[in-house]
Amino acid sequence: MVTPDASFERAYSQYLPAVSGYLFRRVERQHVEDLAADVFAIAWRKRASVTEGEELPWLYRIAANVVSNHRRKQATGVVLLASLRPADSAPSAEDIVVADASLASAWRKLKPAERELLTLALVEDLAPAELAVALGVSVNAATIRLHRARAKLAALLAE
User: Fold this and answer.
1) 128 and 146 Cβ atoms separated by less than 8 Å
2) Are 125 and 111 in contact (CB under 8 A)?
3) Residue 85 DSSP class
4) Shortest CA distance to 115 belongs to which of 156, 55, 76, 82?
């Protein structure tokens, strides 16, 4: 019989690299470990609410909220320190696409929600069902949003 503790430990071992990678692409390197710990602490408290097979997108949703909270905290009192800090953080999803000027221009014209959706689908390689869990919407809504975001990006690239 697998205990809930053993099941969570297995999920932690299995998904920590993916969650850390997600965080690594969104926050400064020195915060990744602490934020990953926060993600799994929240996951531990809410572990009864996850559906089996949807653990990773569920963890991405928690991670997105943790990143948002982290950014709010950073913005409240550390603006001066952030401007003095050397840039040694991991590249964001936006930085990854900057190599191509037309793609970078189109990427900046997308809404933040569209950029996050495309990043989850293309960089994190989530399927529509997993996107739905990560976004807290139905699979149909996730599929439609993904289609619209891809179409918008294609149209912006065609300009």
Assistant:
1) yes
2) no
3) S
4) 156
**With contact defined as beta carbons under 8 Å apart, do 139 and 54 qualify?**
no
Q: Which amino acid is at 84?
A: L
Q: Any alpha helices (H) in the chain, and if so which ranges?
A: 4-24, 32-45, 55-77, 79-84, 93-97, 101-109, 112-122, 128-135, 139-158
60 CB-contact burial (10 Å; exposed 0-12 / middle 13-18 / buried 19+):
buried
Q: How far is Cα 154 from Cα 158, in angstroms, rounded to an integer?
A: 6
Q: 51 with 125: CB under 8 angstroms?
A: no
**Could you report the per-residue pLDDT of 81-117, keeping only the tens digit for each?**
445 555 555 666 666 555 567 778 888 899 988 998 9
What span, in angstroms and rounded, lies between the C-alpha atoms of 103 and 46? 38
Location of structure tokens 């401007």: 83
Which residue in this structure is represented by tokens 């503790």?
A: 5
pLDDT tens for each residue of 55-79: 999 999 999 999 988 988 877 654 5
DSSP state of 100: S
* This model's pTM is above 0.90: no
- Taking the C-alpha atoms of residue 63 and residue 56, their distance in angstroms, rounded to an integer, is 10
Map 28-45 to HEC letters.
CHHHHHHHHHHHHHHHHH
